[in-house]
């Protein structure tokens, strides 16, 4: 590599190239997008290979032990194949076994390590080890920045950090307390994404319902109008921009009730708040929820779900759960299964409890043995599979709007309003038989549903 790297005191004559490895959740992905946008703004190029890069940035995840291993392996690979590595992301904030920094302990030859959401610090490290290109204007950045998602959908991160302290989670210790982005900043980014052709906006954060709590729902100005830094107000703004707006990581607080009626409205622009809520309930038993220190744990979730569905019959509810949390008895797990049957959620993920280094839940008594944790996940998923199968079967014969993600020889792979990318199901569309029924990636088409299983749907363009 030394032959292509100029001495630090000399400016580059051709644009220096940075390799980028992005691991982790959508929140980490938006951090990667910000760093890539800044690199591009300053005239750096990106390299698709380790060998072609002058330096590599690895954005890590530290959420569970498997993610830690994957991140440490990725750093090792980048060091072997390139040698000049800057590490950022959640794992960068994690302490090693004897204090100090975990990554510096395992891989002492990395050039620099930062925590998550640290574009400025990452850029400082890049400047130090790979000087800025001679002409910072050689490559102008589009208004919507650099995105790692397909052109037709984008994640919009509205805040960083979290004020809760769930006992199984170490995110607050890595990302800090809630910091909401100013409302005008959020809406401006969304406007730029709409101009760039985005059809679906996925609103993400650690707790979307808490947006603005840290700034006491301060009033900001959007295009000269006063708008509060508050979830409902933000969502109302986003819905006017002509895109589908999908809400992730919403907690069942009473304030969420206000958003539900908005899901029944379609704007003249074609924009709408999708009738979809991603609510990570995690459990149903009050004692376990208290041990987990979950937000809104005392809310009457079944009543709330019922009221939401009454106000918006089309509503899809997705959730995640943990089985085998320390101390969970068979009766408490059964209560979770009963909740599942009662709640009739549309999309559900379930994870066996996995101790995360540094999480306070690890100190709780009566850990559940691994084989029982796994067995409970299997029982949970069997119950949910039968619920999903029945709920999806009810869609056969209906016409639903779908956003096309992919077109291939077999037809199209799309998603309905009930399906978020990566985590939910797909709608497989037959090839168009008539020219006016043709579709391409990014189109929103009406599909008549002809078949279903426990996860996906099949249909033809209506
Ligand atoms: S709400 Fe709980 S699980 Fe989610 S980031 Fe905050 S502390 Fe972690």
Structural class: alpha/beta
> Which CATH architecture of the largest domain?
Alpha-Beta Horseshoe
The CATH first-level class of the largest domain comes to Alpha Beta
**Low-confidence parts, pLDDT < 50 over ≥5 residues?**
1-13
User: How would you sum up the global shape?
Assistant: globular
The CATH H-level superfamily of the largest domain is: tm_1862 like domain
Overall mean pLDDT stands at 89
What percentage of amino acids are in beta strands?
A: 15-25%
The DSSP helix count reads 11
The distinct bound ligands, ions and cofactors come out as: iron/sulfur cluster
Give the strand line-up of the largest sheet.
6-9-12-13-14-15
Give me the CATH fold name of the largest domain: pyruvate-formate lyase- activating enzyme
**Helix content range of the residues, please?**
25-40%
Query: How far is it from the N-terminal to the C-terminal residue, by CA?
Result: 56 Å
Subcellular location: Cytoplasm
InterPro entries: Elp3/MiaA/NifB-like_rSAM, Methylthiotransferase, Methylthiotransferase_CS, Methylthiotransferase_N, Methylthiotransferase_N_sf, NA-bd_OB-fold, Ribosomal_uS12_MeSTrfase_RimO, rSAM
GO biological process, one term: tRNA modification
GO molecular function, one term: protein methylthiotransferase activity
């Amino acid at each position: 590599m030394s032959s292509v790297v100029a001495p630090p005191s000399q400016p580059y004559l051709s644009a220096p190239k940075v390799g980028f490895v992005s691991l982790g959740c959508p929140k980490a992905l938006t951090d990667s997008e910000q760093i890539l946008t800044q690199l591009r703004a300053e005239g750096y190029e990106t390299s698709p290979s380790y060998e072609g890069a002058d330096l590599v940035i690895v954005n890590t995840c530290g959420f569970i032990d498997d993610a830690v291993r994957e991140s440490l392996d990725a750093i090792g690979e980048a060091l072997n194949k390139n040698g000049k590595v800057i590490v950022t992301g959640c794992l960068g904030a994690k302490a090693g076994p004897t204090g100090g920094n975990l990554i510096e302990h395992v891989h002492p030859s990395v050039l620099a390590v930062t925590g998550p959401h640290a574009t400025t610090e990452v850029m400082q490290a890049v400047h130090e080890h790979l000087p800025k290109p001679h002409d910072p204007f050689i490559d102008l950045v589009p208004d919507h920045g650099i995105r790692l998602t397909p052109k037709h959908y984008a994640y919009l991160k509205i805040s960083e950090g979290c004020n809760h302290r769930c006992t199984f989670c170490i995110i607050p210790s890595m990302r800090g307390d809630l910091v909401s982005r100013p409302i005008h900043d959020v809406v401006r980014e969304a406007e730029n994404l709409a101009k760039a052709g985005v059809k679906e906006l996925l609103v993400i954060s650690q707790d979307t319902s808490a947006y603005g709590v840290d700034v006491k729902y301060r009033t900001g100005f959007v295009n000269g109008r006063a708008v509060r830094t508050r979830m409902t107000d933000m969502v109302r703004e986003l819905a006017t921009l002509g895109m589908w707006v999908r809400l992730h990581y919403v907690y069942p607080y009473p304030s969420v009730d206000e958003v539900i009626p908005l899901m029944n409205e379609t704007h003249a622009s074609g924009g709408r708040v999708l009738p979809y809520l991603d609510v990570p309930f995690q459990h149903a038993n009050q004692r376990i929820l208290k041990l987990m220190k979950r937000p809104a744990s005392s809310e009457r979730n079944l009543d709330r779900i019922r009221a939401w569905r009454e106000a918006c019959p089309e509503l899809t509810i997705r959730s995640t759960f943990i089985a085998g949390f320390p101390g969970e008895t068979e009766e408490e797990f059964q209560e979770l299964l009963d909740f599942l049957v009662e709640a009739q959620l549309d999309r559900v993920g379930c994870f066996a409890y996995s101790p995360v280094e540094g999480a306070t839940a690890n100190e709780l008594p009566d850990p559940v043995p691994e084989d029982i944790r796994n067995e409970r996940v299997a029982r949970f998923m069997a119950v949910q599979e039968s619920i999903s199968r029945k709920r999806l079967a009810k869609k056969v014969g209906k016409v639903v709007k779908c956003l096309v993600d992919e077109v291939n020889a077999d037809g199209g792979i799309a998603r309905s309003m009930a399906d978020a990318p990566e985590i939910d199901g797909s709608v497989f569309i037959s090839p168009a038989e008539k020219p006016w029924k043709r579709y391409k990636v990014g189109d929103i088409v009406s599909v008549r549903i002809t078949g279903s299983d426990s996860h996906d749907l099949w249909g033809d363009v209506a």
